[in-house]
Amino acid sequence: MNIVYKIADKALWETAEAAGVFTGAEIDVQDGYIHFSTAAQVAETARRHFLNRDDLLLIAIDGDKIDLVWEPSRGGDLFPHLYADLNMDAVIGVIPMSPDNHGIPTPEGGFPA
Fold first, then answer.
1. From CA 90, how far away is CA 63, in angstroms rounded?
2. pLDDT one-digit tens code per residue, 42-87
3. pLDDT tier, 33 (very low <50, low <70, confident <90, very high otherwise)
4. Cβ atoms within 10 Å of 45's Cβ, excluding its own
5. 22 and 13 Cβ atoms separated by less than 8 Å
6. Which ranges of 1-113 would DSSP assign to H, the alpha helix?
7. What CA–CA distance (Å, rounded) separates 113 from 13?
8. 3-100 falls under which CATH superfamily?
9. What integer is the mean pLDDT of 84-97?
10. pLDDT given at position 75
């Protein structure tokens, strides 16, 4: 299984769950695709883009169930992007996140390996 991750605001995610589809956060809508990270990228994504934020969730997605496009971004790394809405049937886990003592939102149990 190819697992990718999305960090999302809890209220936004709850709205998406109720609708049965995630259409993206504000940045996703602006860019025209939903941003994801791999296990190796997600901690740095949390540090760079979500520092000192509460009420976040780490969403684990079965990347084999969606049509990911891998594109270069930060430092030339390839990041997974979805140019469509995310259906909830691809979601395999939702983990609450809280800022650590450095303000980095960290999922309960730590970041995936």
1. 7
2. 999 999 999 999 999 999 999 999 999 999 987 888 999 999 999 9
3. very high
4. 20
5. yes
6. 10-19, 26-31, 42-49
7. 24
8. Protein of unknown function DUF952 (3.20.170.20)
9. 97
10. 82
Cβ neighbours, 10 Å, residue 33:
18
Region 14-31 average pLDDT: 97
Structure tokens at 94: 């939702």
Distance from C-alpha of 69 to C-alpha of 54, rounded to nearest angstrom: 29
Placement of tokens 């149990």 in the chain: 109
Please give the Cα distance from 88 to 98 (Å, whole number). 23
**Cβ-based neighbours of 89, under 8 Å, separated by 6 or more:** 65
Region 29-43: mean pLDDT is 97
**Torsion-angle region of 68 (φ positive above 0: left; ψ -120 to 50: alpha; else: beta):** beta
Residue-range domain boundaries for the chain: 3-100
Please state, for a pLDDT cut of 70, what percent of the chain lies above it.
100
